[in-house]
Amino acid sequence: MPILAFMGPLDDIVIRSIEKDLELIKSKALACNNFKTKIFDGANHLYEGIEKEIGLYLIKWINENI
Description:
Radius of gyration: 12 Å
Strand content: 15-25%
Number of helices: 2
Low-confidence stretches: none
Distance between the termini: 8 Å
């Protein structure tokens, strides 16, 4: 099953750094051979103001991976 993990640089819940947090998540998905990460520029924890961009990206990713 493919996995897409994404965050934004304005997220206030980042533990280490966005890149390190996404890599940690990826390291836990041992059985996943199709793991993709994405950082959405300008995104906060709620993805306010970029909902359309994220929605379009998710549709594209789903069509390519599911």
